[in-house]
Amino acid sequence: MPSLASAAALAFIDSWPDWPANAAALYGPSGSGKSHLATIWAVRAEAQIVSASALCDVTLDPSRPIVIEDVDASAPSAARDAALFALFENPRISLLLTGHEPPTRWASSLPDLASRFSALLAFGLWAPDDALLAAIARKLFNDRQLTVPDAVIARMVQSLERSPSAIRDFVDAADAKALSEGRPVNLALVREMLAERDAEG
User: Fold this and answer.
1) Residue 30 and which of 9, 85, 98, 102 are 20 to 30 A apart at CA?
2) For residues 107 and 71, is the Cβ–Cβ distance under 8 A?
3) Rounded distance between C-alpha atoms, residue 22 and residue 10, angstroms
4) Could you give all domains of the chain from N- to C-terminal order, each with its CATH number?
């Protein structure tokens, strides 16, 4: 099983649209998988993705969910915080925010927005362990309606770079290869792909 925090975050993403609140946050260091989980949710929810620093430079569709990335990566501004607070005030919009630090530490120029940050349902993620990477791989295959043996997942986690993005890219490539060659995604196909990768250096 993934760590409790990772398992809770995955379960929460999968529970949409039956969220207990219309806004939540994922936080953790680079490579912890928060952006990957946010992207999985964005695909599921048909959500828009925007960085917090670009919030004032884009036009968002108020009828669609929104991922706001890297909330604590830049200094707050009055314009950014006003735009963020307006999104929080719209109960029809589902929001998923990401940052490095817990939302209680996110800076804001608006006290009301700081209160919203502090009240967010938040999930902390850390460096991905084997169980989280395996769970992500399994979910990505399931999203493609592909059933793969446990041995395939284990070989991927053992052989690939330890990041959600590496798992995602390999799943994409395995799906494409299996489709083009009319083969199942099995251990033989994965071994072949890994051997080809190693041969390319």
Assistant:
1) 85
2) no
3) 17
4) 4-124 (3.40.50.300), 130-200 (1.10.8)
